[in-house]
Every structure is written in C-alpha cells, then in structure tokens.
Amino acid sequence: MPKVTIATVAERAGVSRQTVSNVLNTPEVVREETRARVIEAIEALGYRANQAARQMRTGRSRLIAVRIEPDRDGINGSVLDRFLHGLTDAAAPAGYRVMLYTATDDTEEIATFESLLTSYDLDAFVLTSTHHGDARTSWLAERGVPFVTFGRPWGAPDTHSWVDVDNAAGTAMATRHLLGTGHRRIGFLGWPAGSGVGDARRDGWASTLAAAGLPGTGLDVAVEDGIDSGAAAVADLLPSLDALVCASDSLALGALRAARESGHPCAVIGFDDTAVARVVGLSSVSQPLTEAAACCIDLLAGVLDRSAPPRQLLFEPSLVLRHSTPL
C-alpha cells in the first residue's frame, strides 16, 4: 500500500499542502468548510502525521515511547518493569502519555524507531539498558529526535541528558558492610566483561577490597545472568569464601542454593532488591527506580524546550539487609 503523505491528503481534499499543514497545526486559520474537507480526507486515507510533519508543528503530542524489556528469568527482568511503572506514574501528572514497544537488539529497535516516527506523532523516547557502542542514541541524535536515557553513555561523551544509578557505589556499600561484620574472604559473582553496568558493579567490589588491603584475585567469577549459572559458577569457589557480592539477585539466589547444597556457610548480597529477594530474605542493593523515572520525565521537559544544556543525574543506591547476611 502506498504511503499516505500530506501531499496525498492535499490532493484528495483539493487543497494545497500548506492548507493541510495549517489544519494539523493551526486549524483556527482555516475556513470551517475547508477544514472539514481536509479532516474527511485525513480520516478516509488513514493518514497519521510522520516525523517531518511533527517537526512542522508548533505544539506537541505529549506522547513518549519506551521499550518493554525482555522478561529474562522473571527475576531481574522485573527491575525495569518497576522503572516503567514509575515512568508512567510520573508522566501522567506532567501531561504525557507513554507508548510501549518491544525490540530484541539495537538493530531491531532502530527499525522500530523508524516505524513509530512514521506512524505516530511522538515527542520523544526514553531509552533503557544503555551499553558500550550503543547505536540507538547516535541514530536519534543525528535525526534531531528528542530523547533521554536511563543509563549513562558507557564509553561515550556526555552529549545527551541521562539518569543513572551509581552501580559501583552499590557494590562498594555491600562490600564495606561485609568487611564491617568481620568477613575477609569476600568474592564477587558477576557478568562477562564489557557490559558497562556489570563492569561498574565489579569495580565497586574490587576497589573496596583494595582499599582495605585485601586480595581480590581469584575470588571473582563471571557468567551469564541466571540462577542455575550462578549456582554452577560458585560451587567450586565457595570453600575459599566467607561472603559473596553478586551483580544481580538471580546470581545471588544461585549462590545461596550452591551454599546450601554444599553445606558451606556464606553471606550473600544481591543487586536490584527484586520481589523474590524480599520473599526469600536475600540482602540486596536497592535502586531508587521511582525517583529515577520521575527525573527522566523532568529532563525531557528541558530537552523538548531546548531550554537547558544536557543534564546528567546520578542516584545513590541503598543496601537492604536480610537473613542472607547474618550479623
């Protein structure tokens, strides 16, 4: 089916393209009879303003788009669900509506950007799960599409507005707590190098051990996220440890299972403070997701108004102690 454009609508209505643009942007300057004819053409053709038409407008749609994250194992996949709820709650009082979409990788997400911008009158995007070599931000920036990110631009300049949580501070906090309760052989269970977030969480653990004059060499292991992978990864390491800091609650739950099965006592702290952590009594680092989401909406106002330079906000996490780290 041929793409419907302003020119298509103008031809059907028997008016100029400028008149169609006026009906879309400043309808009060168009005679009622002409306006009705253009609206009839728009409805008959199923026309939706594309990105070019959006840029012609003086107003805004108040519509922002954000990706729904993959479910993963149902545990850590729920973390960004909480962010999404916070974003939706913060958007409504500010007069914004949130559109959701799915994508499995950068390439598919960029294709989705093109489709959404052609089909809908979007004001902006909120991007999540930023990473090294993130192609999404450069694609949007090159086309002048407003956006903010929940997550910093790992390895790239701070050229756009973002909100993030200090991942290194979270694992440093967990490690200091374990040191303060007498633990000295503190290991780290994390993700393969290069993820940005995972590297920062490892750095917090490593730098805190180094500052205490304690060795970290040989006490960390990296695996793909998951309960089973976490349990298998630390099974052989547990006899060398008396405590473990983990990059996620899924990995921490796997470590707890391995410790229980081996009979080797080990204090365990996870990351993200998921609902499962609360149910099973797992100590975990908690992210202020509601506050971070609200700040994303606040930053969008500046981005859309072009009233301020890009801003970056870094939140401190907190440590929630439960039964997995007995005093």
Automatic annotation (TrEMBL):
<dbReference type="InterPro" id="IPR010982">
    <property type="entry name" value="Lambda_DNA-bd_dom_sf"/>
</dbReference>
<protein>
    <submittedName>
        <fullName>LacI family DNA-binding transcriptional regulator</fullName>
    </submittedName>
</protein>
<dbReference type="GO" id="GO:0003700">
    <property type="term" value="F:DNA-binding transcription factor activity"/>
</dbReference>
<dbReference type="Pfam" id="PF13377">
    <property type="entry name" value="Peripla_BP_3"/>
</dbReference>
<keyword id="KW-0805">Transcription regulation</keyword>
<dbReference type="InterPro" id="IPR046335">
    <property type="entry name" value="LacI/GalR-like_sensor"/>
</dbReference>
<dbReference type="Pfam" id="PF00356">
    <property type="entry name" value="LacI"/>
</dbReference>
<dbReference type="InterPro" id="IPR000843">
    <property type="entry name" value="HTH_LacI"/>
</dbReference>
<keyword id="KW-0804">Transcription</keyword>
<dbReference type="InterPro" id="IPR028082">
    <property type="entry name" value="Peripla_BP_I"/>
</dbReference>
<feature type="domain" description="HTH lacI-type">
    <location>
        <begin position="4"/>
        <end position="58"/>
    </location>
</feature>
<dbReference type="GO" id="GO:0000976">
    <property type="term" value="F:transcription cis-regulatory region binding"/>
</dbReference>
<keyword id="KW-0238">DNA-binding</keyword>
